[in-house]
Amino acid sequence: MSQLAADLRLAVRALVRRPGLTAVAVATLALGIGANTAIFSAVDRILLAAPPVAEPERVVALTSVFDGNDTPVSLPDLLDWKRELRSLSGLAAFRGSGFSIGGDEGAAEHVGGAMASADFFTLLGVQPLLGSVFAPVPGEPPADRLPATAGGEDVAVLGHDLWQRRFGGDPAVIGRTIRLDREPYTVIGVLRDDGLRMPWAGEIEVWVPYSRFQERFLDRGIRSNTMGIGRLAPGTTVEAAAAELTALAARQEELHPENNRAIGAALAPLHDKLVRDGRTMLLIVQAVVLLVLAIACVNLANLLLARTHARGQELAVRRAMGAGRGRLVRQLLVESVVLGLTGGAAGVLVGAWGIEGLALLGGDGSALEGLALDGRVLAVAMGLSVACGLLAGLLPALAGGRAAEALSDGGARTAGGGLRAR
To answer: What is the pTM (predicted TM-score) of this model?
Structure first.
């Protein structure tokens, strides 16, 4: 540890003695690491983070398919799936919708919302921050109806952001009556601030029971923004469940050709449905900024190599004074790692600005809303900083060690020859 502390002190002195080179190197790394920090924060949020539900790997989204593309499910089709699919332990209905909220302090406003069947939150294992969420009335519902919601159909669950923005985070909102599209609803719960998202929907700020509206959608020909959210039965794979659903959709086409002609069905993990549209673009952007960082490392390596050649005499003196080649290589590597960490610290600041820009670019209701630095992103930034320091400094360090040894040996031979000439 004492040798490492000494190496760190020497590294800081060496960097301070050459402020111009240090500033250029730090700026180069800051741009590369900052860009990667910002883009990785989006990749982590959208592609890597699992939905905030219980056992997310078992939660699947079910849609109809027409001409190779996902399309909404008719409610009767979904009820058939709910009744007949054995590969699922549960299947809930979800439909994105907008509402005008009013009837409380403040002007009316349009908010993103959703209709969810009474078993939706239970199936996902979502627990509220305050109050309760929808729960089905005990007993089996009719086969051609969604389960009714305990407590009635005129209840609502608020999203965390709406609760904070419109109701000031007041816990007394539970039991309060609000108006959605001029209809009265009693608030029974508030969700946690965990960004529960669904495909085909932006930010969902209020949830109401689907069963209140189901009479509008009981015609098999109506396909209006509805999808199924299911949970795989224990021991069932996604592939097996998808095969069963495909076979059932084929039978539905035979039984209801007037409404289901050329209509198939698809089942996929919920997370895959959520990230499908943005996956390719995000991975391309991440690859591009990694390439930019690689170029920055090459440029830094060239700067360090030039500086190492300029310090050849200094390194030769240290070699002649007893410093081994390994010690010199280690010292040069420590300098490059310190430089990398300094550039990484500046890169985190650049990345923070970039993250704010991405959040603004995404806008309200997007997956990027509220994007911020967190521990995982900071850990990646630190890892990139150390990796850049090591990769950029390795070749110059090895070259510096060889040059110091050659100059030291050459000086010793010259000195020896001079003594013999005398």
So the answer is: 0.74
